[in-house]
Design brief:
Elements (H helix, E strand, L loop, with lengths): L14 E3 L4 H10 L4 E3 L6 E5 L3 H11 L8 E4 L2 H8 L6 H10 L4 E6 L14 E5 L4 H21 L10 E3 L23 E4 L10 E5 L5 E5 L5 H8 L4 E3 L22 E4 L15 E5 L12 E4 L6 H16 L5 E5 L7 H12 L2
Helix pairs in contact: 1-5, 2-7
Bound molecules: adenosine monophosphate (AMP) and magnesium ion.
Length: 355
């Protein structure tokens, strides 16, 4: 339903005390694609395995975000952050900041590893990475890391970086609601909430983008102060981005990914007049692929053959990237049903189609 109650009642997920085998069990749930309430020192997060696109889509669904907003990926240690993104990929400034502030409330925007699903970063080529200071969060992510390695040894299918225990986790509240700072506050659908007591910091992490020239751009103020940052990188090297400012740096696209190829959003593909497209090379994006067949499109992307909006959301950005790389003059996208994650998908398509 659109424009409904911004604070819907959701069943309270079970709160689990962190004792005995609870953490190991919780890590198994994450590895199997389930969502979990996870304590951090900032706020409680709604956690999923960061390399599982469908689980990340379910995070957006559970939060009922009207659109996709990049998720922060949490790792258990600084070493694991470099294992995940590749140490050479991180600017020297990032390493200095990591030494000074990790574990802690600082998120660094770094180059995205290819294996990380695009839905996690909302289509960006960068990923926000953080090492949380909460001991229970660290234990949980470490347990996931161990489990993924074990599974990789027995099955050996996943590419190496996808074996790093990374947890994508936005705040565990429904969109528009207040961030939870206690386990009992978590009221979004998930398997369980790990009880880590009240959050010590209580505000979100500071988000920075470190640059090769030694400067940092602060994208969001939070638990790490500007003074603290200046102490590490130097007084004149900290710049706070203006609200709404597009983050530009070499190799970085807009803050929210939009394809370069012009995109037309239509409600019903069969109402499209082929003559209106002239001689252009046109690609098509639809939910199930049933419509648009035989209409002479040069490329086609299907978001979910069975029409599942969670699967569609998980595939959306990767599909847009493929269409963008196909050398097309135009992409025609058909709106998906305006319900559940369909609203976020349509929102993205509407923005992508804006002139
Ligand atoms: P949160 O809602 O606390 O989980 O934080 C998510 C926020 O982190 C986003 O709304 C962005 O402001 C920021 N963020 C995460 N990833 C990126 C990224 N790759 N580039 C820029 N900002 C990011
Ligand atoms: Mg939030």
């Amino acid at each position: 339903m659109d424009g409904g109650d911004p604070f819907p009642k959701t069943a309270q997920p079970p709160v689990m005390a962190a004792e005995g085998s609870t953490v190991a069990r919780a890590a198994r749930w994450l590895a199997d694609g389930e969502l979990l309430g996870m304590p951090t020192e900032t706020v409680y997060g709604l956690a999923c395995h960061a390399f599982d696109a469908a689980a990340a889509a379910r995070v957006f669904e559970a939060k009922r975000r009207p659109s996709f907003d990049p998720l922060i990926v949490h790792v258990a240690s600084t070493d694991n952050a470099w294992r995940m993104i590749g140490e050479q990929a991180a600017p020297t400034t990032a390493r200095a900041l990591a030494d000074a502030f990790w574990p802690g409330p600082l998120t660094q925007v770094l180059p995205k590893p290819a294996e990380l699903p695009r839905i996690v970063t909302s289509g960006l080529e960068t990923v926000g990475v953080r090492v949380p200071a909460h001991p229970l969060a660290q234990r949980l992510i470490e347990a996931l890391d161990d489990l993924l390695r074990e599974r990789a040894i027995t099955k050996d299918t996943a590419p190496s970086r996808a074996r790093v225990g990374g947890v994508a986790a936005p705040s565990a509240n429904v969109f528009g609601g207040v961030s939870p700072t206690r386990a009992e506050h978590v009221a979004v659908p998930c398997r369980a909430v790990l009880d880590g007591g009240p959050c010590a910091t209580g505000v979100e992490s500071t988000v920075v983008q470190p640059h090769d020239d030694g400067t940092v751009t602060v994208l969001r103020l939070g638990g790490t102060t500007l003074e603290q940052l200046a102490e590490v990188v130097g007084e004149g090297n900290v710049r706070v981005a203006k609200p709404g400012e597009k983050v530009t740096s070499p190799g970085m696209t807009e803050r929210h990914y939009a394809p370069r190829t012009p995109l037309t959003l239509v409600h019903r593909l069969e109402r499209l007049d082929p003559a209106s497209l002239g001689n252009q090379r046109v690609g098509v994006l639809t939910l199930t692929g049933e419509r648009g067949r035989g209409m002479g499109f040069a490329a086609a992307e299907v978001l979910s053959k069975r029409g599942d909006l969670v699967e569609a959301a998980a595939n959306l950005f990767a599909a847009l990237h493929r269409l963008d790389a196909a050398g097309l003059d135009r992409v025609v996208a058909e709106a998906v049903p305006e319900e559940g994650l369909g609203r976020a998908i349509n929102d993205r398509l509407r923005r992508a189609s804006a002139p």
